[in-house]
Amino acid sequence: MKIVSLFSGCGGLDLGFKSAGFEIVWANDVFEDAARTYRRNIGGHISAGDISKVDLKDIPVCDGIIGGFPCQGFSVANTGRTVNDERNKLYLEFVRVVNGKTPKFFVAENVKGILTLGKGAVFEKIKRDFENCGYEVLHKLLNAADYGVPQKRERVILFGVRRDLLKNLQVKFPPDPTHACDVGMFPELKPWVSSGEALRDIPEPGETSDIPNHTGSRYKLRFNGYLGHRMIDPNQPAPTVTARGDERGGVVIIHHPGNHRRMTVREVALIQSFPLDFIFEGTNTSAYRQIGNAVPPKFAECVARSVAETFAQK
Questions:
Q1: Residue 248: inside a domain
Q2: pLDDT, tens digit (0-9, with 9 covering 90-100), for 21-69
Q3: pTM tops 0.85
Q4: Is residue 27 part of a domain?
Q5: Does residue 271 fall inside a structural domain?
Q6: How many domains are there within the chain?
Q7: To 5 degrees, how large is the angle CA 127–CA 133–CA 134?
Q8: CATH code for the domain in which residue 73 is found
Q9: Would residue 206 count as lying in a domain?
Q10: For 160-203, how does the pLDDT look when each residue is reduced to its tens digit (9 = 90+)?
Q11: What are the tens digits of pLDDT across the range 146-160?
Q12: Cα separation of 51 and 54, whole Å?
């Protein structure tokens, strides 16, 4: 099935869909560094630019549209978030493309804060706008740790299926978890992957030059409980990787599970489940932001496989 990707970033969601057997035919993101990373690792089909300025006729026919529209205005990490944040309106570009291209399905990803902004009214409007395009829309708050990602990352997934197709389909959503915090209660599942396990074989930065992007923030450690200053439990998945930061790499780059320094770009990428050979373009600060904005590819692949199961039915 042919996929158009919006707000693609460096390509975490796309990489997951590609791994699940989908073909990405067109992608778009406004951040040039992210587009460069995407081209290097996934393909040259990404267009860098403002999606609001893209004519629908320039977007190819597709079976599905995927994307994580910008979330900063929705995020609970944004203490100044408001209903009127301009970034909250970018989802309308996603709606515009879905309405204009009428794919069989769409998948949209966002932070859990989207559910509570405006006491839930914002999310209900978003969902209704997609439904008015002719889609049955399901949503679920999912934790990436339940899908083998070494990170506690809760995200809302919206899965829309065009209504005229529903009579012949049994929608497979949400995807079945593959991992669990308590395998005693769920013996059929694997245990959560810890940050310590995920980074176990990664040497200290400077010990080898063979690992790409294995450099990072020198911002000193703190242990005061605030975001980015919390001690890591190496036996648990890492806390949520964020895209916030400053030119030194950011006070919110999370600690290494050894709690002796902050993670490098490569280590944060591994916590997000990017493969070791996925190369990030730009400065360390840029790479941190690309990674923090991304959908973990392993999580994305599980979502994509549930979509594939829906449309594999005869």
A1: no
A2: 999 999 999 999 999 999 999 999 999 999 999 999 999 999 999 999 8
A3: yes
A4: yes
A5: no
A6: 1
A7: 100
A8: 3.40.50.150
A9: no
A10: 999 999 999 999 999 999 999 998 999 999 999 999 999 999 99
A11: 999 999 999 999 999
A12: 5
Instruction: Name the helix (H) or strand (E) containing 18.
Output: helix 12-19
CA distances to 125, 139, 230, 271, 314 from 259, rounded to whole Å, are 42, 36, 9, 15, 52
The pairing of beta strand 105-111 with beta strand 64-67? parallel
Report the candidate in 171, 144, 74, 65 with the shortest Cα–Cα distance to residue 115.
74
> Considering 62, 71, 133, 302, which one is annotated as catalytic?
71
The sign one gets for the Cα dihedral 97, 68, 276, 23 is negative
Concerning whether 302 is annotated as a catalytic residue, the answer is: no
| Average pLDDT of span 267-284 | 97
- The helices-and-strands tally (H runs, E runs) of the chain is 8, 9
Cα–Cα distance, 173 to 151 (Å, whole number):
22
Phi, psi for 24 (deg, rounded to 5): -85, 120
Residue type (1 letter), 263: M
Which range of residues forms the domain containing residue 161? 2-179+295-311
What is the DSSP secondary structure assignment for residue 52, as one 8-state letter? G
Q: Which of 211, 271, 279, 275 is nearest to 41 (CA)?
A: 279
* Across 205-222, average pLDDT: 85
d(Cα 260, Cα 39) in Å, to the nearest integer? Answer: 34
Distance between alpha carbon 149 and the CA centroid of its chain, in Å? 12
Give the Cα separation of 197 and 204 in Å (integer): 15
The two tokens of residue 37 are 């990373």
